[in-house]
Amino acid sequence: MKMILFSRVLTLLFGSHILLLLICGMSNGTDTDIYCLRSIKDSLEDPYNYLNSWDFNNKTEGLICRFVGVECWHPNENRVLNLRLSKMGLKGQFPSGIENCTSLTGLDLSSNQLSGSIPTNISKLLKFVTSLDLSSNRLSGEIPVSLANCSYLNSLKLDHNLLTGQIPLQLGLLSRISTFSVANNNLSGPVPTFQKCSNFSR
């Protein structure tokens, strides 16, 4: 009888422990998304105050889903799906804190005044991104080879920047790419061959 009771207690404790881990995991996931947006806001100059709606004092679940330019997986869950921050006059370098938006699939920072280089580790910052638009900025340097590791990409727009060097031929390994644009830069050399790209602009 004592052994049965002891076994039931252990089962109950184990079940409670697993449940607690799941809850903590979900909480940490949404916390990282909040930290992601906070770091983006802190790292960029916002001369027209578009990001003023990003008020992190209110801890209500799903609040960030009402922020300008933020789309969530679910309106009541602090998990970012897409960031659409184009034409806001934002200044600064590519926000490295974006890696904390761990469920992000779409990023649009086009038509701003971003400068500096595209991070060489961008594939680690944007692990699941399917659409990346950095066009019409002031980004310089070379296109990082690591973009070839963003295997879910189907749209990549880097046109109208100050990029130099060659287009990494490894980008041709992106089997899902249907839109690729690097026009109006200072690029040279051969162009990668894409299997499915129907909308190409160099």
From TrEMBL:
It holds the Pfam family LRRNT_2. SUPFAM superfamilies: L domain-like. One of its GO terms (cellular component) is membrane. Belongs to the RLP family. This is Inactive leucine-rich repeat receptor-like protein kinase. Keywords: Glycoprotein, Kinase, Leucine-rich repeat, Membrane, Receptor, Repeat, Signal, Transferase, Transmembrane, Transmembrane helix. The lineage of its organism: Eukaryota, Viridiplantae, Streptophyta, Embryophyta, Tracheophyta. One of its GO terms (molecular function) is kinase activity. It is a single-pass type I membrane protein. Residues 1-29 form the signal peptide. It comes from Quillaja saponaria. It is found in: Membrane. Its main location: membrane. The keyword Membrane applies. InterPro entries: At_inactive_RLKs, Leu-rich_rpt, LRR_dom_sf, LRR_N_plant-typ. The keyword S-adenosyl-L-methionine does not apply. Residues 31-73 form the Leucine-rich repeat-containing N-terminal plant-type domain.
